[in-house]
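User: Batch of two.

Assistant: Item 1 of 2:
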Amino acid sequence: MPLPEPLVRLVEELQRLPGIGPKSAQRLAFHILKTPREETDRLAHAVREVKERVTYCSVCNNITESDPCVYCRSDARDHRLICVVEEPQNVSAVEKTREFKGVYHVLMGALSPLQGIGPDDLKIKSLLARIGNGVAEVILATNPTVEGEATAIYLARLLKPLGIHRRDHDAEGDGRAARGLVSRCRGSLSLVGRARRDACRRPPDLLSPGFGAWTLAW
């Protein structure tokens, strides 16, 4: 017997969520069907409220209820120091350390030639625009993945001619140079007392025509 049309539509919409396949979507749909009405109403209200009240900061791209966000409008933060992260959730991870006192810039992703994500798909131009407003130092805190490393190297090459001091996150934690930086520690970002030397050579994983083209075209 075919599923009722409303249930089919719910399964189809749930499948659009990241990491949710057809079977998982169907399980969730049947779970929602069995859930009491007041609970599903709360879920629907929470989804609507997020879309109506939460937005992205026009300065740093972090999620916020008011624009600009609490970090960008705070006089207590050091606006000469910018920590660059991939996603808004990375901001929360850095804040949990209670050690970083600067501001943030969220790229909304990372460079990925295989997925067709290039510099124009990230918030790189707005980062460069911010650097002209008295920024003295940039911390590159991209994730310790191939894509994160590619993004950090690309940004490092852009920042170097501007004379901006930068610190890279040390994904390997091997302390190959000696400055403070942002590093992965037990699943979250933690400020530690070591840094990586300038990454100017391209790692083997990044030997792709796309990465080189982005570097030259910017």
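Item 2 of 2:
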Amino acid sequence: MGRRKKNSKSKRNKKYYISNKYKNINVKRNQRDTVFRMLFKRKKELLSLFNAINNTNYKSEDELEIVTLENAVYMSMKNDVSCLLDMNLQIYEHQSTINPNMPLRNLMYITKQLEKMIVKKDLYSRKLITLPNPRFIVFYNGTDKQPETDTLYLSSAYEHKEKEVNLELKVLQLNINKGYNEDIKSKCPSLFQYMQYVDILRENRKTRPLKEAVIITVDYCIKHDILKDFLLANKSEVISMSIFEYDEELHKKTLRAEGYEDGFKEGFDSGHKEGFDSGHKEGFEAGVASKESENQRLREEIKELKKQLNSK
């Protein structure tokens, strides 16, 4: 019997075929837009988000003013989304990593916003200048464990703790991962579907190269009516942004993990001396064992993160 010729074309992945149109998408390393930002700078979606967070029922998109800061503060840092409605100024940020400096960032944002709003006002006038009520929200959807809600305070950064704080700024962090703040997501379909998109991408990323996982996720969501209109109108941009966002998130995690590993020895040596000096030998040894286990886990995580970054 003659050998059956192998058809190399038949070996092509039959589960999914990626069009050449999307194979050559280039990710701009200096691009700062995100899928979240792009989605919620549309008035319909932003009004829905505003109502869901504030438990309001505003109807008119015309009354909503988008006042998002572009290239704010320094280093081309942008505020994700800001809006003004009925003298309520709301500043929204999306984070996939934990950032304790959000109150400080928001202080910078609100200062810039107020400068814009009072540019024609006389600060030396005897008449009080009316200001909108500000509110600061962070939407967190990272993989690190976080509570359903958390409040971050600017005063936490102060070197000296005082009973009476003269300048405070509070940021409400909302965990929007699956199983958290479902009531808010149910009131804002775009936020709910955005997290569906993120979850599907994360699942696809476990078994596929980054670009392929993103393209498959976008096409799947379009087919299953998840952000369908938004994705159809912005398909190439969303693919490019998602690749950049995921790559950036992995890069930050790798740097943090490597920083922890580099600092472990110094912290270990310091803790070793302190532990024995305090006479807490038993507790220290238990802590060392726990830290060593954590350090080993981080080494494995670094290895996996680097593998993911190199597989793009």
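The radius of gyration is 24 Å.
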